[in-house]
Every structure is written in structure tokens, then in C-alpha cells.
Amino acid sequence: MQPGATQEQIKDVEERILHFGFEIHPIYGVERTVIAAVGAPELDRSEAKEQLESLNYVESVTLVLKPYKFVSRKFRDRTVIPLGDVEIGGDTCVIMAGPCTVESEQQILEAAQAVKAAGAHILRGGAYKPSTSPYSFHGMGIKGLELLATARDATGLKVITEVMDPRNVEQVCEFADILQIGTRNMQNYDLLREVGRAKKPVMLKRGMWAQYEEWLQAAEYIWIGGNEQIILCERGVRTFETYTRNTLDLNAVPAIKELSHLPIMIDPSHGTGRASLVPSMCKAALAAGADGLMVEVHPNPAKAIKDGAQSLTQAAFHQLVDELKVLADALGRTI
Amino acid sequence: MQPGATQEQIKDVEERILHFGFEIHPIYGVERTVIAAVGAPELDRSEAKEQLESLNYVESVTLVLKPYKFVSRKFRDRTVIPLGDVEIGGDTCVIMAGPCTVESEQQILEAAQAVKAAGAHILRGGAYKPSTSPYSFHGMGIKGLELLATARDATGLKVITEVMDPRNVEQVCEFADILQIGTRNMQNYDLLREVGRAKKPVMLKRGMWAQYEEWLQAAEYIWIGGNEQIILCERGVRTFETYTRNTLDLNAVPAIKELSHLPIMIDPSHGTGRASLVPSMCKAALAAGADGLMVEVHPNPAKAIKDGAQSLTQAAFHQLVDELKVLADALGRTI
Amino acid sequence: MQPGATQEQIKDVEERILHFGFEIHPIYGVERTVIAAVGAPELDRSEAKEQLESLNYVESVTLVLKPYKFVSRKFRDRTVIPLGDVEIGGDTCVIMAGPCTVESEQQILEAAQAVKAAGAHILRGGAYKPSTSPYSFHGMGIKGLELLATARDATGLKVITEVMDPRNVEQVCEFADILQIGTRNMQNYDLLREVGRAKKPVMLKRGMWAQYEEWLQAAEYIWIGGNEQIILCERGVRTFETYTRNTLDLNAVPAIKELSHLPIMIDPSHGTGRASLVPSMCKAALAAGADGLMVEVHPNPAKAIKDGAQSLTQAAFHQLVDELKVLADALGRTI
Amino acid sequence: MQPGATQEQIKDVEERILHFGFEIHPIYGVERTVIAAVGAPELDRSEAKEQLESLNYVESVTLVLKPYKFVSRKFRDRTVIPLGDVEIGGDTCVIMAGPCTVESEQQILEAAQAVKAAGAHILRGGAYKPSTSPYSFHGMGIKGLELLATARDATGLKVITEVMDPRNVEQVCEFADILQIGTRNMQNYDLLREVGRAKKPVMLKRGMWAQYEEWLQAAEYIWIGGNEQIILCERGVRTFETYTRNTLDLNAVPAIKELSHLPIMIDPSHGTGRASLVPSMCKAALAAGADGLMVEVHPNPAKAIKDGAQSLTQAAFHQLVDELKVLADALGRTI
Question: Which of D82, D270, D84, D251 is nearest to D162 (CA)?
């Protein structure tokens, strides 16, 4: 309560809290009164907080419990998602690699074979592409999905691709092994609900503006929609630094491991926007304990339709995976 | 070019630029070579930039032209959107007011009558509500839309409400006079394309992470989809300050006026998250030249389901509008 | 406490809290225990917070009281600082104007006469200049101070200038009427202590990274050093937006008025970095309730040694002040 | 130039550029004129940029060269700073460890012996402490410096400690082996000049708001002051994330290695503010290629006067160094 709150005002707040279903424990100090509230486990506490804070005789309201439940570390210790021969969230650091965008059959097949040969587990490639500019290429759509499936058949790699529109979820599920929710859609709730009904694992990228807590709440949307196969992916946040395209936040790895049981991947290609920084940040992510890496690799970055500046060549990727294997070994993990 | 780039590398870059359709104007300095490129007006230059930057002998690529065209100030000086008796973008500072969420017939009718009496032009109210927590109230949906229409009929106010799902655009158009795209959906491109096909004005809120340039590119999506009735709305961005819920960026008002011909509204309720700051920021927005204000008003903020802490009481709103009228007069505008 | 904390751990925390001098009020819930602590008014609570949070059986520690006292709104309602004919913090919106840097006698005299004629109250001008680049001009030093004094004598305007080095405080006090602490030095504690001993008012600019709370704590340093004549000045913070040099945060005006009794000025020249945005933001600041404005004005911005891009011409400044007078009148204030 | 600039305006800009000492290379396009300028190597280009941008017929000015010279990677490939048996910037990842603050002879001796036994090379400990709150402990001052020297004599560890006031530089040099400039003082130019005259290596922490370019310009101040023994240290920047005290930006490691020849350290204790995240981020920093680590270690974190929540226990630190040694080995480096 504000200092100087009257008996009546204190009583009003106490009644409101009881009405929400809490028990109250008031502490009457010399300068001010603090009213602790416990119980009411099923309530959305943020709503109670907002209502109480709107009273001008309430100084502040502090929530003690986390605003998510099923994706919390308190609910479960660790989630491992099996996917054919691979396990996401296990001892192996899973590597997803491939071009930003599916451009042609030749390009995606060449990329798939190269990343497979280098040691990647999963092929990435965009069929539906979010682009800041309306004049950019927006992906090949259904044709791109078919080419991804072709590349999967040719290499045995599993396939991850982005879904942007709730109306396309079913279609993308026919072709992809993992659905990706991009950074711009982290709080696209109708899309989250739709992938919550899907039978495929979902990789949820962090919004470039999102706090860990908001990211985990977005994951909770998918969970309570019925889909517990959720993978988180950090891909850089917005800061004042302009040398990198985003600021890749590796603190997210140990922080999310403290807060949640879900696996966490790192995408240094989008996180930094510069191919020259990607190898160092891949090693750093592995050493920090990331469950996997997502790396853009293109047969010819200088001809890539999108994101060439952040794509590794196939040779550079192969060398990187070799170096990561040595590092994984020292960390008691595998690639 | 990097210092020390070879003749061959310079030639390679020149050929790539010509291939994109530009003319080249190389400048061979002592320390380094700069290659200026002009022409190629229809190209998405950001793609050319990315491809060239992926070459390790290119130091940097600078774009001179803006990445949007139709929403630019160079395309048109000023857009005025007529809406019944009101004009958005004209001399009148348009006031949109109402509760965050439609909660009941009585609540929305009472709010509508109160904001009308105070002098508001447009009623706001959410039927589909984005909520960070999956456990929060997500709005009354179609029932909420019907109640907004009831309130419109009862008061003559125009109605604005948010649409989140591309599958609902048609339905929302049946009830609303203006479609609102919320901050989380500023880069939900399938939704932007869908409202680009609608026959109703669209208010596009700034993404809480978005630069002005990205915001205008999102508007350009709607424009080239076929809908030129676009209103921008600043509602606060993410910073390190925690006292306010967001940092309302009033610089956006004169900045957007320099860059674009579209009207710009200000939403200090979400922008600050604190009812006590709303009146001052409304006055500031009007003085900065905003085309309108969006204000949360609730018959009883302390009982509001959502956003009570940032909602004005009806009495406070009435007094605010009275003060704004005096200010508008001094600025040669009207409310 | 963490859920599952043992009796022993709870007892340990209780003892630590008592040892700090607090009374304890434990609340034993089903899921977890909360220990409320009241009293110990003289303690630096942030240190108690840090120590308790380092215990792995403590989940979190929340402070209820503000970490500053004398500059708080609870200590006093409003501070007015008299300065010759002017009062800072009173009904008049005080205008400080002048060039970024003192460049020559002719320049500063011409600028001083022009801003005086337009209606400014105080002359600004840098003698010691912080510059990001070591190769930039760093000001005329003592010669610049002398020229400011000459301009004061010629016009009757009071003079404000920046002090950067604790060793120069005494010298600057000989020439200036107000000492300015720049954004980069907001947490330069030895400098704050030194101006705390000065007999001249101090204008403390907000650090471009600083939360309101940190800013007020910096002001508290000056206060407890013995100098109660403190003026705050918002000048833009760091965000991801690059169109403006900084993001001027006008929310600071009503927010600081809620939290503190100190006057608050706005500097839109540094806050936006663009002369074209300055007039709109000056009007907005006045309408938000700012106690004053600080504006860069230069006889010839295109020849200014520093900050030409954000300086108004003398004619533009004159017109701006005329418009501000009309606005002030409508707001019941004066210029 | 702006589209539509007149011949006269173009000529004016050309003359200004020639006056600065550049050669000009104008490109007259259909829509607009671009004027390239080369030469004038000694000029502070940011001043030329600002002056030209203040002209309303100039659309934008782009700088191609970096605003620093001696600390640039183009000036030198790699700097190694020898310090007794240790080399900073060489193959060994140097470990600086110790308490935030020197509290007593017993505390600093115990900490020094423990970090030495674990394998640290350098002892850290604050004698002059910057504190956000004026009511916090500000360090033991000269007595703290003497105790650091005692700990050095007892263990053979080199000593690093912060200097905040230009008036104390000489004194701190008598006791310390490395001078630390804290984050709040990164742009305290008088202090930078003073340590530029010192004969001891300087570790320059990144300002929590500073871009890489600004950080390197601050280092350039020290260099041109005469001191080339400069070490950079990333310690977290300000973002919207609140779970961590700051956002430790590991991208700085490969980015700074691209831009500069100076060694770069990482401080995960301040960077995250949470002891539980420190070990993971130390491993990540090493894998990213950091030249060293700075870690807070306290004999009893729960009794630490400052920063207990981010300090490791001695046992945890010992285990961490053991794990880092295995990792360093796999990376071809040593600890």
C-alpha cells in the first residue's frame, strides 16, 4: 500500500484479494502496510496484479510465482525429443544446416548432400519466407516444400521449415519433420494454437524483443494446445549495437536450462548476420551447453537469394563441424 | 572494396553489379576502391546488398535509396482518410477511446456513451485479444464484435478493433470501421496481405522492436496489397527502462511526418502502461503534431479484466479532452 | 524461499534478516515460504538484497522502498531554484540556448545576442567538450569559459557549461552560473561528489543507458554531498532505432514529476540529433510539463565545429520561441 | 544530395568538401547526385559528416573509413602484453579472479590463496568502488590498495584494480599491476588521458551502452595518450531482458578480433549477475576465443559486502578452472 493509505483503503484491497481466492497475510509496518497473498493456484496472477495496481492507494504489486507452469523446470527436469535416429535434448548436439531459402532442386540437393557429408543431422530451408521488404523473394511455397521432401529422400536427413500462416500448418506438416515458428511470429497466438494441434515437433524462435519469461509463455501456449514436442531457439535480440545484425544472447542457454526443461538451440547465422562470426559463436554455444545449432550453409553464398552475407560455404561448414567434434568430445558430448 | 582488393576482385564485383542492372561508377583511390552503382529502379536493393556483402573482398555496401516507395513522403505529401464525419490525417486530432477489452453489453455501452460525451470520435474495444499469458482472457470473439456494433448503433461512434488471424479478417470487416493490427503482428505478413485486400482502413501499430524503416515497409505490404487507407500508430518500444511498461517514442511523430504521408496516431496507454502518465503524454503527442490519440478508458479501471492500471476513469478522460481542446486551439487545430 | 527449502534454511535466512536490523514477518504457505522484512530504515537495502539472493535456497528478494530519499517526491513536493531573474522549477518554462561549443568571441557573442533577442533565459556553450573521437575538437577550455563570461556581461544572460574533470570544478564555478554534468558522466561519482561541494546549481543529464531510479540515485549523490540545487535533464537514451541519434524519452517528464521534486529539463537537440525534429519535440516537452528546454542554436549550423546537424538557425529558434509562447499561454505557463 | 537539389546547391557542397581537403568524384544520376570524396587522411571525418548533414539539400553522408586508427586490426595483427610470467593476448587464456571488493586482510589473503591454488593468474579486488547508491560501501581506498599489495607479495599473483578518479591514477599505479577502467567511465575522457600517461597496462571495460566502434575510440584515446598496453573487457550491455543483470555480449569476442589487435577479456560475473550462469559463460567465452576471463570469487559469497549474488565460491571456482583446462586443451590453448 502507499504510505498513508487509510484503514478503508486497506480493507478494500484485502477484500479484492480475498475475492480473487487468495488468503491474505497483512503486515502493518510503521511507514506502510504490506499485504501478502497466497493460494489461488489456478488464477492468472498478472490480471490480479493489473487490477490492484490500478488503485491509486496501492504502491506496487509483486508476483512471486512464474507465469508459466508446464514448460517450467519445476514441472520436469529435461525433455528429449526423438526424431528418427536423432534425439533433440540429449547428449548429442544436433546440427541443423542448409540454405536460408529453397531456390531450386539443384541448389537444395547440393546443399543437403554437403551438410550431410559434413555431419549435420537435419536440413533447414525456407519455403515460406518472412521478408522485411514486400519487394523481396517470399519463397517457393508448396514447390519449395516438395523440394525439401526430395532432398530428404535423397539424403535421409530430417527436414525443418518455417510455417507463417495458420492456414498452412496442415500442409507444412505433410512435408516437414519439424515446424519452425520464426522470430516475428513468437507472439502470433493463432499460429501458436494451430501448431499446438499439430503432431510434429515445433521449434519456437525467440522474438527479437522478447524476455525469457515471455518466450516461455509462448511455449506454454503450444503445450496447452496439446503439443509437448517443443524446441526453443535463440537467434539474437535487438540492441543498440549495429556491427552485428542482432545481438546473439548466449546467456539464454544456461538461463533457459535453469527455467525450463525444453531443449534450446542456437542460430548464430541470424544472431550475428556475419558469416565470419558464425564459427566462433557455434563453438561458444556448444561450450555453453546448447542442445543444438542452426547454421546457414549455401553452395554459393555470393549467389544466394537471401542472407548470403551470413551463410557459410560448404567447405567452411565442413571444417567447422570437424572442430565442433573435437570440442564436443572434451565436453563429454557428441555431434 | 577492402583495401588491397585485387584487380580481379574489383572486376568480379563490377560484373555482379552490372548483372543486377545497375550502371557503375568506380572511384579508384589510393587506399581503396569505391564502386558507386546507380539505376536499376525496380530492384530489391537489400538483396543486392546482401549478396555483395557476402564477398570477403567487399568491405561494406551502403544503400542510398529508401526501401519503400508508395508510403514515402516523396510519393505523396499527405494522406487524409475520411470516415463518416471524421477525417484522419486532417486538422482535427482524432480521439479513439474505450476499454481494452469488450467485457459485457453494459460495460461497452457505458464506456461508449461516456467517451462520446467527453468528445471522442471513435470507440476502441478488443474482441480478439492478444495476451502474453495463455491463461489470460482472450476476448469475447464474435460476441464482442456484435457488442461493438451495438455500441456504434447506440452512439454513432465509429468502431476500431483488432484482427489477429488472417482467417478472421472478413468477419471483423463486417463489424468494424477500422481494422487494427497489433504490435505483435506488425511483421505477420500473411495478415498484412489479407488486410491489404480489405475495403476498410487499417491502423498498423509499430512493433515494439521495429525501426521506422521496418514499420514503413510493413505499411508498404498493405499498400501494394491494394489497400491505401493506412494509419500508423506508435505505442511504445522496448528499452531497458522498467518504470514504464514500454518507452513511448514521441520522436516518431515528426520523424514519420518527414518520411511518410500516412497519418500517425499515438497510444500513450500502452506506451507508458501507467494511467498517471497518460494525460501528460496525450498533450505532448498533440503538441508534437500527432494526427490522433488512442486512449484506454474504462467505467471502472479497478474491475477491468485487462490493462486496468493504464486505463483512465471516465471522469479523468473527460477532463483530459477538455484540456486537449484548449491546447488544440492554441496549435491551430481542433479536437 | 525456494519451494522445498528446509526448516534450517528458513531459519538461516530469518537470522540474517534480523542481523541486518529488520523485523521479520514469515508467511508459511503450502508451496513456499515468504519472509517479509520491515524496519532498518538507514540500511542500504540493495546490499541486503544481494547477499540474500546469493543463497541458493532463496528464490528472489523484492525491495519495496525506493533507493533514494532526499530527491524523492516523498521528501518534498517541488523544488524551485532561483537564478537572478529566472526561477527553474516554477511556472516559467526556462529556455537554455546557444551553440554546442564556444568557437570564437564573435560566434558566442552573436549567438548570445540572438538567443537573448528570441527570448532565451540562459546561454549554453561548451568550453570543455566530451567527444567520442580522440581526433575531434575538445573545446577551448579556460579561454572558452572567459568568452562565456564576456557573453554574459554583454547580454545579461546566465551561463551554463559542462564540467568533466573533478579538478576543474572550482575553475568552472568561477565563470558559470550552472554546472552541467554530461550524459557520459552521470555515474562519475568523484565528479558528482565534487559538484556536491560546489555553491552553484548543477544540471545532471541522464546517462544514455540509465533507468530513472539510477538517475535519481546519481542526483542523491550530489544532494548528500551538500548541494541541493539540482536540475535533471533528459537528453535521449540508447535504443535500436537509428534514424534518430538517440531516442528522446519524454515519458521522463511526468515520470520524474511523480518520483521526485527536482525540476526537469528536456534537450531535444541531443535527444534526436536532427534539427528538423527539434521544434516538434520542444512543443511536446512543454506540453508534457517540462520545466525547461535546452536547445542548440548556432549562427551558422553548416559551419559549426560540432553538432551542426542538430543545431537550429537563429531565425528558426526565434520562430520556435514565438510558437512556444502561444502554447505556454494555453497551458497556463509562461516562457 | 536530395533529389531535386539545384546546380548551385551541388556546387556549394562540392566546394565545402574541397575545402576540407578531399578530392571529389561526383556521380550525376537521373534521380539524384552522389558526391564521393576521397583523401584528407588526417581529418576527423565525423565533423565533416555533421557539417554536411546540417545542409537541408544533403540527403545523407556515409563514412567509409573507421573512426580509429592505431587500435585497428589494419594497424597491427595482434598485441601481446607481457606481465611477469603471464602474457595477455597470447595462447594462454588468462584468468583474473577475486572478490568484488577488498573487505579485510583476512578476506583478500584467503581469496588470493584460493584463486592462486585453483590456477588463476591475476588477482582482482576493488579498493575504489563505483556504486549506484550513494549509501553503499565505496571501498577501502588506499588501505585496500595496500592489502592488495600484501596479497600479491604473499601469493606472487599480479594485481588488477579499478581507478575512478584522474587524481588517483598515480597512487593506484604504485600498487597495481593493471589499471581497470570501469564500465561507467569508458567515456570519462580526462581519466582516459590520465591512464594514457601511465606506465601500467590498462583494462578498459565496455560501457554498458557502447557500440564496438565507440569502445575502440575510447581505447584510441589511451593509445594516443602514450600507453599502448590496452586490454579490452566485455562485461554485459543494457537490454530489455531483466532475468540477467546485463546481457553479456559474447559476439564481441570474434567481432573485436576482426576490428582490432587488442586482447579481449570477458567478465561473466557482471555480465550475467548470477553465479549460476557464470561457469557456462566462461566456457563459452573461452570457446569463442577470448584472451582471458575475469571472475568474481569470494570466500563466503553470502557474507560479501557487494555482488555476492554473482560471486562463485572458491570450490566452484576451482572446479570451473579444472573444466576450462580440459576445454582449452581441445582448443589448442592453455590456462
Answer: D270
Helix (H) or strand (E) run with residue D99 in it: none
Residue D139 touches chain A, beta carbons under 8 Å: no
Cβ–Cβ < 8 Å for A280, D254: yes
Asked whether the beta carbons of residue C209 and residue D209 sit closer than 8 angstroms, the reply is: yes
Residue D167 CB: number of other CB atoms within 10 A?
Answer: 16
The residues with which D94 forms a beta bridge, in sequence order, are: D292
Residue C296 belongs to a domain:
yes
What does the pLDDT profile of chain A (335 residues) look like in tens digits?
887 888 888 888 888 888 888 888 888 776 778 888 877 665 667 777 877 877 778 887 877 678 899 999 989 999 999 999 999 999 999 999 999 999 999 999 999 999 999 999 999 999 999 988 888 889 999 999 999 999 999 999 999 999 999 999 999 999 999 999 999 999 999 999 999 999 999 999 999 999 999 999 999 999 999 999 999 999 999 999 999 999 999 999 999 999 999 999 999 999 999 999 999 999 999 999 999 999 999 988 888 877 788 999 999 999 999 999 999 999 999 99
> Is some CB atom of chain A closer than 8 A to the CB atom of C75?
no
Nearest CA in chain C to D298: C54
Residue C153: other Cβ atoms inside 10 A = 11
The verdict on A33 and A113 lying in the same domain is no
Residue corresponding to grid cell 602514450: D226
Whether A74 maps to a domain, the answer reads: no
Does residue C138 share a domain with residue C26?
A: no
Residue C192 shares a structural domain with residue C327: yes
Distance CA D13, CA D58 (A): 8
3-state secondary structure chain A: CCCCCCHHHHHHHHHHHHHHCEEEEEEECCCCEEEEEEECCCCCHHHHHHHHHCCCCCCCCCCCCCCCCCCECCCCCCCCEEECCEEECCCECEEEEECCECCCHHHHHHHHHHHHHHCCCEEECECCCCCCCCCCCCCCCHHHHHHHHHHHHHHCCEEEEECCCHHHHHHHHHHCCEEEECHHHCCCHHHHHHHHCCCCCEEEECCCCCCHHHHHHHHHHHHHCCCCCEEEEECCECCCCCCCCCECCCCHHHHHHHHECCCEEECHHHHHCCHHHHHHHHHHHHHHCCCEEEEEECCCHHHCCCCHHHCECHHHHHHHHHHHHHHHHHCCCEC
Q: A53, A69, A89: which is the final residue of a domain?
A: A53
For residues B162 and A12, what is the distance between their CA atoms, to the nearest angstrom? 34
- How close does chain B come to C38, measured CA to CA in Å? 23
Interstrand relation of C81-83 and C86-88 (parallel, antiparallel or unpaired): antiparallel
In a domain, D67, yes or no: no
Q: Tell me: do A178 and A283 sit in the same domain.
A: yes
Based on the fold, state whether residues D17 and D152 are members of the same structural domain: no
Amino acid at C182: G
Residue ranges with strand state E in chain C: 22-28, 33-39, 81-83, 86-88, 94-98, 122-124, 158-162, 178-181, 202-205, 230-234, 264-266, 292-296
Contact C211 B242 (CB under 8 A): yes
Domain range for D24 is 7-53
Asked, for residue A58, whether it belongs to a domain, the answer is: no
Instruction: Please tell me the number of Cα atoms within 13 Å of D104 on its side-chain side.
Output: 9
Domains in chain A, number:
2
CA distance C187 to D186: 11
Interface residue A42 vs chain C (CB under 8 A): no
User: Which chain A residue has its CA at the smallest distance from D237's CA?
Assistant: A239
Predicted TM-score (pTM) of this structure: 0.94
CATH code, C260: 3.20.20.70
Residues A303, A154, single domain; the answer is yes
∠A19-A21-A24 over CA atoms, to 5°?
85
Nearest CA in chain B to A196: B134
